[in-house]
Amino acid sequence: MDFEHIFDESYERVLKVKCNNKGFFQAFYDRYIASDPRVAGHFKGTDMERQQQLLEKSFYRLIVFYATNYADDYLEQVAIKHSKLALNITPDLYDSWLDNLMITVAEFDPLYDENTELAWRLVLSTGITYMKFKHSHC
Ligand code: HEM
User: Fold this and answer.
1) HEC string of 25-76?
2) What pTM does this model have?
């Protein structure tokens, strides 16, 4: 099973559509922020349109990281920014981040199935493990 290919195709599909007039990243952040007051607190005052663009950009780095196991300087800076030295995003918040992302994928991808879910979880897991680890190792 080529999970990277399954992920790529699904990612292309979710970026193409709108649900309730929202793009994929906007719908994800709306859902994630509504899911937990701690998340809402972290994003209080954030320009969410810019934030969506930054997450989309960093997604490509996460995908490359999965494929190559190479964490570039950009990803390192993002991880340091999320660590206890700066934003202090605790590791448990990455689990709910991914769960909320998967609900959003299910909503946006008309071909969503179990393999799609597994493909997303696998492709993002290397980057998430890296970010969680860096929380207390910067
Ligand atoms: C793998 C998962 C994640 C990725 C790839 C990611 C990516 C990013 C990126 C690229 C930025 C912008 C950095 C910059 O300003 O240059 C950012 C900012 C931020 N992220 Fe994340 N993030 C992740 C997980 C999380 C989680 C779980 C939270 C929990 C609440 C979170 C909260 C924030 C906050 C509060 C900011 C700063 C917003 C501001 O500038 O006001 N992130 N993230």
Assistant:
1) HHHHHHHHHHHCHHHHHHCCCCCHHHHHHHHHHHHHHHHHHHHHCCCCHHHH
2) 0.97
DSSP class of residue 21? T
pLDDT of residue 138: 84
How long a stretch of residues is the chain?
138
Mutate to test the pocket of ligand 1, among 33, 53, 77, 89 (most ligand atoms within 8 A of CB): 89
Domains of the chain: 3-135 (1.10.490.10)
Q: Is the CB of 103 under 6 A from ligand 1?
A: no
Average pLDDT by consecutive 10-residue portion of the chain (138 residues)? 96 97 98 98 98 95 93 95 98 98 98 98 97 95
Distance (Å) from CA 89 to ligand 1 centroid: 8
* Cα–Cα distance list, 64 to 14, 15, 89, 90 (Å): 19, 18, 23, 24
- Atom 38 (ligand 1): residue with closest C-alpha? 46
